[in-house]
Amino acid sequence: MKIEVDISGNMKFVYRNSVMAFSTKDGKIKNTVLLNKKLKRWIIIKYKSRIKNIKEQLHCIMIFYCIKDHIDKISEMKICPDISPYKMNQYLRLYLPEDYFHKIRKRIVPVTHESLAHKIAYRTYKRREKPSLILTKDMILELLLKKVKADQ
After folding, report:
1. For a FRET experiment, which of 33, 127, 134, 146 has its CA 20 to 30 Å from that of 43?
2. CA atoms of 70 and 72, how far apart (whole Å)
3. Are 77 and 105 in contact (CB under 8 A)?
4. The CATH fold of domain 2-147
5. Would you list the domain boundaries of the chain?
6. How far apart are CA 49 and CA 137, in angstroms?
7. pTM of the predicted model as reported, rounded to 2 decimal places
């Protein structure tokens, strides 16, 4: 299955919610993940001195939670390059299971405004649709701190 992944409410804007969405081309399978602005700001302020590239890592954690229920069916991901492609590959490698990381073809290309993933993310960001999942502090810290312990 080929999917598109896009974000609305970029990570660099800490005073705005962020919504990550993915969908298939036909829109039969779609998923959205919301990161609340208060939680995002709290994590960035608290961990920016301990964790390198915290915003990029949060971006990749959102991608992970967005696709994790369908990860075994995905063959190709078209990802919008909101962060550097090198850092995205580096951090996706940390959060995606190793066998799936190598199995999924990742294309980091601009996703247009006509993309279904962009439209879903934008409608959820503007509160016209409800997100499939709202990230909690425990969900994020479980992945972030597991990675930090592995580095030490």
Report:
1. 127
2. 6
3. yes
4. Nucleotidyltransferase; domain 5 (3.30.420)
5. 2-147
6. 18
7. 0.91
